[in-house]
Design a protein that fits this description.
The protein is globular. α6 (about 160-170) packs across α7. It has helices spanning about 10-20, 40-45, 75-80, 85-90, 135-150, 160-170, 170-180; strands at about 1-10, 25-35, 45-50, 55-65, 65-70, 95-110, 110-120, 125-130. It has a single domain (about 1-180), classed as Beta Barrel (Hypothetical Protein Pfu-838710-001). The protein has an eight-stranded antiparallel barrel with strand order 1-5-4-3-2-6-7-8, surrounded by four helices. The protein is α+β, with helices and mostly antiparallel strands.
Length: about 180
């Protein structure tokens, strides 16, 4: 499956209207630790290798706002060409970010809405759709934009949680990564 999402920072009033009539799916605490090689090749190639609540996950960018998610350990091992993920991390990677997020999840129509509050003060709302084929990505992106416009959400580029963490707490790494992206 391909996750198509867009990030927003609604005002309290916009969030209230957005969530009106939405089904509350639950709240959870998410502890994310992101790893990368010392040359930051994952970050600069829009690949995310993380341990989320003690399980490894890999997200690989397909296009702007769309990622393939790999959560099965065997599939992650295959992609990384690793026999043991713990050993792979110890031998090859460095810890880049470590933060906790309080997430409230909602469903409204076909959309999943996640409202995230990080322990370092950053707040985001993500509106998501899942698609099966690459050809469906553009249509899903347009659906998300039109849905957001219904609630007057501002369409602007927002930093990912991990990048905002780096900007605030590890500016030397942030500059290295931003420099390689440009």
């Amino acid at each position: 499956m391909i996750e198509v999402e867009r990030k927003f920072q609604p005002t309290e009033e916009q969030l209230e209207k957005l969530l009106e009539g939405a089904e509350f799916l639950g709240e959870k605490i998410i502890h994310d630790i992101y790893y990368d090689y010392p040359d930051f090749r994952f970050f600069t190639n829009q690949t995310r290798f993380r341990r989320r609540n003690n399980s490894f996950e890999l997200k690989i960018k397909k296009t702007v706002g769309a990622h393939i998610e790999i959560e099965e350990e065997e599939e992650i091992k295959k992609y990384l060409k690793a026999e043991d993920l713990e050993e792979f991390v110890k031998k090859n990677l460095i810890l880049v970010t470590d933060y906790t997020n309080k997430r409230k999840e909602y469903k409204k129509g076909e959309f999943k809405i996640d409202f995230d509050e990080m322990d370092f003060g950053y707040r985001l709302c993500e509106i998501e759709l899942m698609v099966e084929k690459e050809e469906e990505i553009e249509n899903a992106q347009n659906k998300i934009i039109n849905f957001a416009k219904e609630y007057n959400l501002e369409l602007k580029k927002l930093p990912a949680k991990r990048m905002e963490y780096l900007r605030l707490f590890k500016p030397e790494i942030y500059k290295k990564i931003k420099g390689k992206e440009e």
